[in-house]
């Protein structure tokens, strides 16, 4: 009886294997005859790059969706793409690692480094993600709140009483926090050189990948070499001193991490880039939205002042601690609503690792796939009056897959806790100690690559009496 059962099982398994072997070409050929999604590929090579990066992404995407539906093809930065704008499709793409791998156009891979965490999956990605999370999860970042607060206070003090460009000042703040989390106290020795190189790097980030002398791309690649040299010097210096460090570089350099110097350098460059502009852009939008919504500003200010008052009455130290940041629900909802309305990351890149059939269309192997977060966040099907800034909407959790400011799946941004912490710390001091007025047009928006208040939001910052 047992023998016959085993023979039946083996026969069944053999049948399944033979079926898959013989039918795979049939299904593969069937997929090849599926139509591509509707859409336009634009001009040869450059595609529709300029149209997308030079105008309101809402207008660009909304026009495409109106003409072609929630799934359409395009060509961005020299890459054929399929863009998707439904929560279900975004979930499908972001959570099917066996079908879609994280990727960027080749020019961005060259600029950040091909060994960076963004471009990989599998064991190597899992190892990197574990190493990063060790240094940016609550247990680790709660130990650097005092240092973040010191950076925030210095940033605001240096701005008071003068006209500033909010975005540029916030970039300096988030850049310094990023360096702190990566290099610890060592960062101060390399801060200015790294900042100079990163400004050159970011200017060429969304340029056409033409590596000729004088082009933005060429200048960016030269800056990248300089950054790699600086990181290499820091690594060498640490090895000579043989001192243990609890920061991200220390995590990468551990022997059991198993990373080469090239892998460490690529990931350090990538992490700094990821941590800088996005958070600075969010902070710039928050300053704008708070200035335009006095009732919300008052609620945030009262919440932050209550923390100061409570600490004074109890005789606690004046500085913020981890527990204080957990008593900021209104401020936290302001951050969430800003992430939704501004949608700093309009989309992310994935690449089909094989021909994929979805909703009756073919996504060819090698094509980029872009989940359109901005359109999901601005859909009236998911958010009532989506263009209205209303933090109270987050008193109730949004529907699944309709709010994805940090992505989704195994490639979800690992640094979101650090980003939220540095925003909360700066807003605490901004709202309790300062007031500000906006100079010039209040409604203008500029694009490329991130949507941002016009001219980076010029304001004058005044200390409260």
TrEMBL record:
Which PROSITE patterns does the protein's record reference?
Answer: CYTOCHROME_P450 (PS00086)
Q: Which UniProt keywords apply?
A: Heme, Iron, Membrane, Metal-binding, Monooxygenase, Oxidoreductase, Transmembrane, Transmembrane helix
Question: What's its membrane topology?
Answer: Single-pass membrane protein
Reaction(s) catalyzed by this protein? 2-cis-(+)-abscisate + reduced [NADPH--hemoprotein reductase] + O2 = (+)-8'-hydroxyabscisate + oxidized [NADPH--hemoprotein reductase] + H2O + H(+)
Q: Where are the transmembrane segments?
A: none
Q: Which domain of life is it from?
A: Eukaryota
Q: Which CDD domains match?
A: CYP90-like
UniProt GO BP:
abscisic acid metabolic process; sterol metabolic process
Gene3D superfamilies, sorted: Cytochrome P450
Per UniProt, subcellular location reads as:
Membrane
Q: Which cofactor does it need?
A: heme
EC id: 1.14.14.137
Q: What is its main location?
A: membrane
GO molecular function (one): (+)-abscisic acid 8'-hydroxylase activity
Name of one Pfam family that matches: p450
The metabolic or biological pathway listed in the UniProt record of this protein is:
Plant hormone degradation; abscisic acid degradation
Positions contributing to heme binding = 413
A GO term from the CC aspect = membrane
What family does the entry list? Belongs to the cytochrome P450 family.
Protein name, entry field: (+)-abscisic acid 8'-hydroxylase
């Amino acid at each position: 009886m047992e023998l016959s059962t085993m023979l039946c099982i083996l026969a069944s398994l053999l049948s399944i294997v033979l079926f898959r072997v013989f039918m795979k070409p049939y299904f593969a050929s069937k997929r090849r005859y599926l139509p591509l999604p509707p859409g336009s590929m634009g001009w040869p090579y450059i595609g529709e790059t300029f149209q997308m990066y030079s105008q309101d992404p809402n207008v660009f995407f909304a026009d495409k969706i109106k003409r072609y539906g929630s799934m359409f093809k395009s060509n961005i930065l020299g890459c054929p793409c399929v863009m998707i704008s439904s929560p279900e499709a975004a979930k499908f793409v972001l959570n099917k690692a066996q079908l879609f791998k994280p990727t960027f156009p080749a020019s961005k891979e060259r600029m950040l480094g091909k060994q960076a965490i963004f471009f990989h999956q599998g064991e190597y990605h899992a190892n990197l993600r574990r190493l990063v999370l060790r240094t940016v999860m609550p247990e680790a970042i709660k130990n650097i709140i005092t240092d973040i607060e010191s950076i925030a206070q210095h940033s605001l003090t240096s701005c008071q009483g003068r006209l500033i460009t909010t975005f540029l000042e916030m970039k300096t703040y988030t850049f310094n926090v990023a360096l702190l989390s990566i290099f610890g106290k060592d960062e101060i020795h390399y801060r200015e050189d790294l900042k100079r190189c990163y400004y050159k790097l970011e200017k060429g980030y969304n340029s056409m990948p033409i590596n000729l002398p004088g082009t933005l791309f060429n200048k960016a690649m030269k800056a990248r070499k300089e950054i790699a040299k600086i990181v290499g010097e820091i690594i060498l210096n640490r090895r000579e001193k043989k001192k243990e460090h609890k920061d991200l570089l220390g995590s990468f350099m551990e022997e059991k991490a198993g990373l080469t110097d090239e892998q460490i350098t690529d990931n350090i460059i990538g992490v700094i880039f990821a941590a800088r502009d996005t958070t600075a852009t969010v902070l710039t939008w928050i300053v704008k939205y708070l200035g335009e919504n006095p009732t919300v500003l008052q609620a945030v200010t009262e919440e932050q002042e209550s923390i100061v008052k409570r600490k004074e009455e109890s005789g606690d130290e004046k500085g913020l601690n981890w527990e204080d940041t957990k008593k900021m629900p209104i401020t936290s909802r302001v951050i969430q609503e800003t992430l939704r309305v501004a949608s700093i990351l309009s989309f992310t890149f994935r690449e089909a690792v094989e021909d994929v059939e979805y909703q009756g269309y073919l996504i060819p192997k090698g094509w980029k796939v872009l989940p359109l977060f901005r359109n999901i966040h601005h859909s009236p099907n998911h958010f009532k009056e989506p263009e209205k800034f209303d933090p109270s909407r987050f008193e109730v959790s949004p529907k699944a897959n309709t709010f994805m400011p940090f992505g989704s799946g195994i490639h979800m941004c690992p640094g979101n806790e650090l980003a939220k912490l540095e925003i909360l710390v700066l807003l605490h001091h901004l709202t309790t100690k300062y007031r500000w007025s906006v100079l010039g047009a209040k409604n203008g928006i500029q694009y490329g690559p991130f949507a941002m208040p016009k001219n980076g939001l010029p304001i004058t910052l005044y200390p409260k009496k």
